[in-house]
Design a protein that fits this description.
Helix content: 40-55%
Radius of gyration: 19 Å
Structural class: alpha+beta
Largest sheet: 2 strands, antiparallel
Oligomer: single chain
Number of helices: 3
Strand order of the largest sheet: 1-2
Number of strands: 4
């Protein structure tokens, strides 16, 4: 038995078994997350590495709120960067002293 679904972006996906069903659900989740990010989060460029990422600080629902950064490191980051950093860079700086 074959099931066929069309995503909002026009992409079609067919699934035949439970593995394909799991993949289908994952793709639906990713698509809905991307649409949510486009509507509520700001798309920014990381000042440290240049990578594009989504920031939700403006709506107080950002992933960065869960990252622990020492006050000293945070102060140094604010001195050196004007805007938010991507997840990878923020995690990197949170794990070591900024001036190292």
């Amino acid at each position: 038995n074959r099931n066929k679904v069309q995503f909002l972006n026009g992409t079609e996906f067919s699934f035949y078994n439970s593995l394909n069903s799991v993949l289908f659900l994952y793709l639906m989740f990713v698509e809905s997350l991307e649409k949510t990010n486009e509507k509520t989060f700001d798309k920014l460029i990381c000042e440290s590495c240049g990578k594009e990422f989504f920031c939700g600080a403006n709506i107080e629902k950002c992933w960065c709120f869960a990252v622990e950064v020492k006050a000293e490191t945070l102060a140094e980051l604010r001195e050196n960067f004007e805007s938010c950093l991507c997840r990878d860079c923020l995690l990197k700086f949170s794990k070591k002293k900024f001036s190292d």
